[in-house]
């Protein structure tokens, strides 16, 4: 039992004997022990959490380094790039028909036609 003291009377804690003093503070010692055990559990939990976070960071760093390829500096996966290129080629293969502007204008509804006319008149005044 640790108890700060300067005089022997401090150890007895205003009791007649040292045994009485010990039994008087024994409950506080049990509480202190339980507190210490909880504190140790928390420290272990924090250490475990720190290790898990570090492991996740290391895994992410390793994943990032494994994806770094000098021939692929922007990190695009080849599958996605291949699909994008195929889409681009397919678009070029389609026959682009000539756009018939008067036909498009004729298909405008009343409100669209009004806005179109207003834009055209402001751009090209009569």
UniProtKB/TrEMBL annotation:
Coiled-coil annotated residue ranges, if any: 32-59
Keyword Coiled coil: yes
Source organism, top-level taxon: Eukaryota
Keyword Coiled coil set for record: yes
Protein keywords: Coiled coil
Name this protein carries in UniProt: Dna repair and recombination protein mitochondrial
């Amino acid at each position: 039992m640790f108890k700060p003291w300067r005089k022997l009377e401090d150890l007895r804690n205003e009791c007649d004997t040292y045994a009485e003093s010990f039994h008087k503070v024994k409950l506080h010692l049990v509480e202190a022990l339980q507190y210490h055990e909880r504190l140790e559990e928390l420290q272990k939990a924090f250490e475990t959490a720190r290790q898990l976070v570090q492991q996740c960071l290391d895994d992410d760093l390793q994943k990032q380094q494994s994806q770094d390829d000098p021939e692929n500096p922007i990190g695009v996966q080849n599958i996605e790039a291949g699909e994008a290129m195929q889409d681009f080629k397919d678009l070029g293969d389609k026959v682009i028909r000539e756009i018939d502007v008067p036909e498009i204008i004729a298909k405008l509804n009343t409100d669209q036609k009004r806005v179109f006319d207003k834009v055209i008149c402001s751009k090209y005044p009569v």
